[in-house]
Amino acid sequence: MAHSESRTSAPQLTSEPKPPFPKQHQEAPGIEAELDPQPRWRAPLYREAGKLKGKVALITGGDSGIGRAVAYLYAREGADVAINYLPVEQADAEETQRAVQSVGRKCLLLPGDLTEPRTARELVEQTVRELGHLDVLVSNAAHQARKSSPEEVSDDEFDRTFRTNVYPYFQLVRAALPHLKPGSAIIATSSETSIFGSEKLPDYSATKGAINALTKTLASNLLERGIRVNAIAPGPVWTPLNPSDAGASPEQVSKFGSHAPVGRPAQPEELSPAYVFLASDADSSYITGIVLPVLGGETTG
Ligand code: NAD
Ligand code: MG
Q1: Which ligand is nearest to the CA of 71?
Q2: Relative to the CA of 67, which ligand 1 atom is closest?
Q3: Is residue 6 part of a domain?
Q4: How far is CA 56 from CA 81, 132, 205, in A?
Q5: DSSP assigned state of 259
Q6: Which atom of ligand 1 is nearest to the CA of 63?
Q7: Mean per-residue pLDDT over the chain, rounded
Q8: Whose C-alpha lies nearest to ligand 1, atom 23?
Q9: Is 66 part of a structural domain of the chain?
Q10: Could you report the per-residue pLDDT of 170-187, keeping only the tens digit for each?
């Protein structure tokens, strides 16, 4: 099986790849197959337990990075998955699909641009039509481009960041609600920038703050329907997002993650178990409305 790759017995905290990485840069959205080193997303040390048996999950940004790792771990836990991504990411999406299929689950490929207002509804409808129902929604896609000063953030760019990161979260939830039964879970990917801000990411950080507030609000509102809503706030993660950030130089990419106390970025497989935890009723039935920090040693006060 794809996840039976060999690993040393060294603790993962101290043995995952550290900067400096090879200097590199890509056009957004970035292609995972072109990253060096390749992100680690197969989680070979993880032991599945049927926690999502028979469930269906829709994951945006499921072609690569965190979303791919989540799609694969959900499949290992027994879920069929639908993944959304941009058409240029087809090859990455097919790699995710192969991994999901290798553990005997279905992977529906749903290319589409989330900045188009109709996309969210179409994704939900196609998922339910093809996979039968919807139990877990993971709103995970994002646009990020650093700028050195606030004046460099044009109205169009500010708009694009919100239209990619925030609007689809709400639109997906609204479209999904008629299908979500009690016991369903909604998970949004936030960021450390929602907690600390980020000097060069005013628009992006603001979208992540909005995601946190929306998560808490939806959690309160949907409690009576038995639907839990949570967010995860990762620190730096080795995925295409930063190497394809238009404002990040190849030199900055080579040092990516060195600001985290642990001195390196997370690998996607160090995030995906948290998404299983928050999707699984057996693990987190009393948890709703939280923003779970996964920050490599940063304390949030
Ligand atoms: P990634 O590049 O693998 O995933 C982001 C995905 O967003 C892309 O694969 C793409 O499919 C999707 N996307 C972008 N624009 C889109 C659009 N208009 N329509 C549809 N899809 C679109 O990178 P990742 O790091 O795994 O990102 C996943 C989430 O993690 C994002 O929400 C990101 O903000 C968050 N995050 C990442 C980091 C990090 O350091 N990588 C840190 C904190 C939070
Ligand atoms: Mg991608």
Answers
A1: 1
A2: 26
A3: no
A4: 6, 8, 30
A5: T
A6: 9
A7: 96
A8: 241
A9: yes
A10: 999 999 999 999 999 999
C-alpha 225 – ligand 2 centre gap (Å): 33
| Cβ < 6 A, ligand 1 pocket | 29-30, 60-61, 63-67, 84-86, 89, 113-115, 140-144, 164, 189, 191, 234, 236-237, 239-242
Where residue 65 falls (left for φ over 0; alpha for ψ -120 to 50; beta otherwise) is left
**E strand or H helix that includes residue 110:** strand 107-111
Q: 7 Cβ partners below 8 Å, 6+ apart?
A: 44, 45
Query: With contact defined as beta carbons under 8 Å apart, do 56 and 105 qualify?
Result: no
Mean pLDDT for the stretch of residues 249-266? 97
In CATH, what number is assigned to the domain containing residue 214?
3.40.50.720
Instruction: Tell me the per-residue pLDDT of 100-133, one tens digit each, with 9 for 90 and over.
Output: 999 999 999 999 999 999 999 999 999 999 999 9
Q: What are φ and ψ of residue 126, in 5° steps?
A: -65, -40
The pLDDT score that the predictor gives to residue 9 is 73
Tell if the pTM clears 0.90, that is, is over it: yes
CA angle at 258 for the pair 64 and 23, rounded to the nearest 5°: 65
Structural domain includes residue 22? no
Considering the domain boundaries, does residue 3 fall inside one?
Answer: no
Element housing 137 (H / E): strand 136-139
Determine if the peptide bond prior to 234 is cis (ω within 30°): no
Supply the pLDDT for residue 1: 42
Domain count of the fold of the chain? 1
Ion ligand 2 contact residues with beta carbon within 5 A: 63-64, 89
Backbone angles phi, psi at 61, to 5 degrees: 65, 30
What range does the domain containing 59 cover? 52-294
Residue 5 pLDDT exceeds 80? no
CA distance 60 to 42: 19
Residue 300 is predicted with a pLDDT of: 81
The pLDDT tens digits for 75-87 are 999 999 999 999 9
Residue with tokens 């030199």: 251
Which position has the higher pLDDT, 286 or 8? 286
